[in-house]
């Protein structure tokens, strides 16, 4: 399990950080990351996985939805290397790598993150990765490292 | 059985646009640009401003129909409509909504328009400046995924992987637009041709997009006037008829955090069959195409999803001259489009489609009878038009 992998901040200070939605929909997700747990929604009625979160299950429309922990193991579904900075905090921090990771043990739901390590590294769709935790003062980001 | 269709019942009878400026360089306000384009479209149709009784736009255009009507002294508004969804997905949607209003009898002469002066209001290609982000963007923005180019490069990368398509296809699309802009004095890139070498030497914005894979950002306005086919016959321009219009989105497209089940798509898969079905033609019957380019990758996918080429032929289709006027089988974005004419958020593509059907394009397709206008791509909802003369 990779739950205890932590990492320093991928970007310099000044990047926007996440905050829970005011209506509470995704509060459990961000509470989970703070505890270094990767939670996704799973329908209690039909067992479908779901991310991003919704109030009802998209498959059976049940409102009984649980947040379940997944292993944090994933594979690269798509990726991109960014060269042009569009935020002032990134001015001296290009290139960087963004990966879209699918989670095979959670119905192949996907999450966006950065791939840790050399931003010029060779990346292939299908590469195996696992979650790493980037702690900030009041919120924790999920990042991805090679397995 | 009642035939529920707009086919052949509506025509575009007037087109108008302002001069197109580089972003931030319009000497007048965005609202003045809107007024100018609308008045030009009305004059082009041979109508009076007082004849206009409806407005349609998209992407949260800031120029409210009530204010426009007050400024123009329009006697009454009978239809006002904003197409939901951001970005260029609403271009054909707004025209289609205007057409529906005309067929339903809500209004007689409806203007579809778009005005942009981003120097006055901020550009699309800039990142979010706030310290905290909530909602779906919270799952991507903290990772530096915040601009349109970054949102769409990810899908494009996946599409190119799934169908083994190389950078050459994207280059071919950019070259066609720039080539056509060299014939068009309205174009921002008129007199600034693009070569294959300068395409490849241009900097990466986000892989797989070089600088020249990305649309411009400009100031200006464009407008079209629609009315019934019956009224169109008495007006001064050759009517350009709508054969079909379609708008919409596929299953769970744009689910948060890039969780669309069908990810590597321009989102036209559900629209294209409805579009061609309404028109009663096949993709093979399309003579010329105006396909919205936020980024070249979306054009590539749009061509495939409208059945204009198979995925396995897509690279050859985009690189063997097919897309280039005058000799190509399917001249694409014949004004230069969003890449090289101007970024009027895609409405300039509708004006160019009308020119093709009138026979007045600067890259006029020989015997062009039908024109596809595909607006979106990779957003939700997206929209389509088929025009004929």
Molecular structure report:
The complex is a heterodimer of chains A (147) and B (389). Chain A has 147 residues and is mostly beta strands. Chain A is built from one helix and nine strands; from the N terminus they run βαββββββββ. Chain A has one helix spanning 27-34, and strands spanning 17-18, 38-43, 49-50, 65-70, 73-82, 96-103, 109-114, 128-135, 140-146. In chain A, the strands form two sheets. Chain A has a five-stranded antiparallel beta sheet with strand order 7-6-5-8-9. A three-stranded antiparallel beta sheet of chain A has the order 3-2-4. The relative contact order of chain A is 0.25. With 389 residues, chain B is of the alpha+beta class. Chain B has a single domain, classed as Thiolase/Chalcone synthase (Peroxisomal Thiolase, Chain A, domain 1). Chain B is built from 13 helices and 13 strands. In chain B, strands 1, 2, 3, 4, 5, 9, 10, 11, 12 and 13 form a ten-stranded mixed beta sheet that branches. In chain B, helix 2 links the parallel strand 3 (54-58) and strand 4 (79-83). Chain B is globular and about 55 Å long. The A-B interface holds A 10-11, 15-22, 26, 51-53, 58, 77-84, 86-88, 90, 95-96, 98, 100, 109-114, 125, 141 and B 125-136, 138-147, 149-150, 153-155, 157-158, 161, 203-207, 252, 255-259, 263-264.
């Amino acid at each position: 399990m990779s739950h205890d992998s932590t990492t320093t901040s991928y970007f310099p200070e000044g990047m926007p950080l996440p905050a829970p939605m005011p209506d509470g929909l995704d509060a459990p997700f961000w509470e989970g990351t703070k505890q270094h747990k990767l939670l996704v929604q799973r329908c209690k009625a039909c067992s479908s996985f779901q991310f991003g979160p919704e109030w009802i299950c998209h498959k059976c429309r049940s409102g009984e939805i649980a947040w379940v922990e997944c292993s944090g193991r994933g594979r690269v579904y798509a990726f991109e290397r960014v060269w042009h900075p569009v935020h002032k905090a990134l001015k001296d921090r290009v290139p960087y790598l963004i990966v879209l990771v699918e989670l095979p043990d959670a119905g192949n739901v996907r999450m966006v993150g950065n791939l840790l390590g050399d931003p010029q590294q060779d990346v292939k769709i299908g590469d195996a990765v696992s979650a790493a935790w980037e702690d900030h003062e009041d919120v924790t980001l999920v990042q991805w490292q090679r397995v | 059985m009642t035939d529920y269709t707009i086919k052949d019942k509506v025509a575009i009878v007037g087109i108008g646009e302002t001069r197109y400026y580089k972003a931030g360089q319009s000497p007048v306000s965005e609202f003045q640009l809107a007024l100018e384009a609308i008045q030009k479209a009305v004059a082009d149709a041979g109508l009076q401003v007082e004849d206009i009784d409806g407005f349609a736009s998209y992407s949260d255009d800031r120029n409210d129909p009530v204010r426009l009507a007050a400024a123009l002294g329009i006697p009454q508004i009978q239809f006002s409509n904003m197409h939901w969804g951001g970005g260029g997905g609403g271009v054909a949607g707004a025209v289609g909504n205007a057409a529906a209003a005309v067929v339903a009898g809500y209004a007689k002469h409806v203007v579809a328009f778009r005005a942009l002066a981003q120097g006055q209001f901020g550009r699309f290609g800039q990142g979010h400046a706030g310290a905290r982000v909530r909602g779906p963007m919270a799952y991507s923005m903290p990772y530096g995924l915040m601009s349109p180019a970054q949102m769409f490069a990810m899908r494009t990368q996946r599409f190119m992987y799934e169908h083994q398509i190389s950078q050459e296809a994207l280059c071919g699309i950019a070259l066609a637009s720039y080539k056509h802009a060299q014939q068009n004095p309205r174009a921002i890139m008129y007199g600034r041709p693009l070569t294959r070498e300068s395409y490849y030497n241009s900097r990466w914005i986000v892989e797989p997009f070089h600088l020249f894979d990305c649309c411009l950002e400009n100031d200006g306005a464009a407008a079209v006037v629609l009315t019934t086919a019956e009224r169109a016959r008495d007006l001064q321009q050759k009517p350009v008829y709508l054969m079909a219009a379609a708008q919409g989105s596929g299953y769970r497209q744009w689910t948060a955090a890039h969780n669309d089940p069908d990810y590597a798509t321009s989102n036209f898969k559900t629209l294209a069959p409805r579009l061609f079905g309404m028109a009663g033609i096949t993709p093979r019957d399309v003579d010329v195409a105006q396909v919205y380019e936020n980024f070249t990758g979306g054009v590539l996918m749009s061509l495939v999803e409208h059945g204009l080429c198979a995925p396995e032929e897509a690279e050859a289709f985009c690189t063997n001259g097919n897309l280039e006027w005058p000799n190509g089988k399917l001249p694409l974005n014949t004004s230069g489009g969003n890449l090289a004419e101007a970024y009027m958020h895609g409405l300039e593509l509708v004006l160019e489609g009308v020119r093709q059907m009138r026979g007045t394009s600067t890259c006029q397709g020989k015997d062009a009878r039908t024109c596809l206008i595909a607006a979106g791509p990779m957003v939700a909802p997206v929209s389509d038009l088929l025009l004929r003369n």
